[in-house]
Amino acid sequence: MRNLELIEDGLYRVEVRNHREEIVANFFVDRSSNTPCSFREPRQPLKRMKIGDPVYLITDQLQTGAGIPGMICALQDSTVEVAVEFTHGTKTLKLRNWEDILPSNLYTHSILNVVYQTYGEIEHKYGSILKLTTEEIVAQLIQQGLAPQTARRCADLFDEVQWHNAHLPLRQWLESIRDFYHKKPFAKAASLVPMHI
Fold first, then answer.
1. pTM, whole model, 2 decimals?
2. What share of the chain is helix, strand, coil (3-state, %, to 5)?
3. Collapsing DSSP states into helix, strand and coil, what is residue 84?
4. What single string gives the DSSP state of each residue in 130-178?
5. Could you give the 3-state DSSP secondary structure of residue 107?
6. Cα separation of 24 and 40, whole Å?
7. pLDDT digits over 16-71, tens only?
8. Beta strand pairing status for 67-75 and 80-86?
């Protein structure tokens, strides 16, 4: 499994995980040269997260974009409480495994990565993404590892872009995906922390 996190402009943290040996290696990659800069082991909980931060509860570790949006409402040393909206109201889930959540920006970045790579492969193979139907685009995204529901949403956002008339239509598509998945931190998150009476 591989995760990417933008650390600063042009510098990404890449996490590579080998499930058989339970090894986690973190290294930093300079985007301009695509070379590792340093290594660090083992992975620490995402301590930069704070109450009010938007996160995604990961539902399938093997598919990019398989997650449920939520917000951190409590932090403790070994657990995190995440408020998740369901159809019948908000539920607070207490998680002991930090691996089950991703910050909104990292989750969104991983989706954009798959979409952009898939776009490039489609352009190379077919000459233009416009030669494919929406269903074929969904199939290509799923084939590249995107969760089916996320692939469908990205294809729906693709249909909203005026590809023939728009200035930089790929950029508009990627920005609409970003805007849909990347949630901004909620300023008054303390008011959302559930009160236990």
1. 0.69
2. 35, 30, 35
3. strand
4. GGS-HHHHHHHHHHTTB-HHHHHHHHHHHHHS-TTTSSSHHHHHHHHHH
5. helix
6. 9
7. 443 433 333 333 444 444 434 333 333 444 557 889 999 999 999 899 999 999 99
8. antiparallel
